[in-house]
Sequence to fold (260 residues):
Amino acid sequence: MSTLYAEKSFTLQQHSEQRLPVHGTSSRSSPLHVAIIMDGNGRWAQRRGQPRSAGHAAGAGNVRRLVRAAVELGVSTLTLYAFSSDNWQRPAHEVHALMRLMAEFLRVDTPDCVREGIRIAAIGRRDRLAPHLRAAIEAAEAATAEGTKLHLRIAVDYSSREAIYRAACRFYKATRVDHASFEEILGEVSHAPACNVDLLIRTGGEQRLSDFLLWEAAYAELYFSPLMWPEFNAEDLAAALEDFHARDRRYGALPGAVAS
Ligand code: FPP
Fold:
């Protein structure tokens, strides 16, 4: 083992010990990061004899409703999985429909988000997005930067594995090699600081993570709903939060050892 590698692994080990989460966030007053895998748009549409793109349009409408519901329910950060890097493999017309819906959401909803104190950010790669979508993201981020009610993070061209890999490549060359600096680099490659997820919801009846927030969700509580995304409403989000608040989060410690 090279000296460099030995030094790095020792430092990382020390820091991973220090960085175990130290707060149980089941308390209703704590900041709450909810992440959602919005699955089931296509099936929702197909069951109605409609094209998949109609399901995505209904899904975008539901994003608008659920963002407001999240504010009402006291969520402080909401990360939505809108387009994974693997979604590029879908037919061009579906990719196009999704990109158009995202650009429209950013263009139409940004003024309301400014008024309502909702700060918008996109996480994921930007270099493969169409220039008009990149511009819409940058404009929405700049206009809503002062928002403090809800941090709305939209994952676009996002792959958690790829982000971790890219961060690891940069970290290898970094001069500071501690846990905090790795997370900083991960934030840089994802265009948003890494931020621990408290509750990860997936709609659509499947039970997998699909390359979403693998680092940030290390201690997330998981909640799977059989509902398709367009039909998952504010009451369903409230029910997921009720379920979350009833859970005992121990982060690997013994009961009573985790400060809240
Ligand atoms: C997965 O359902 C959903 C997506 C790949 C896209 C999610 C996008 C939106 C909800 C709308 C656009 C987003 C914003 C932020 C305005 P699926 O199509 O894979 O569903 P299926 O499993 O039923 O086929």
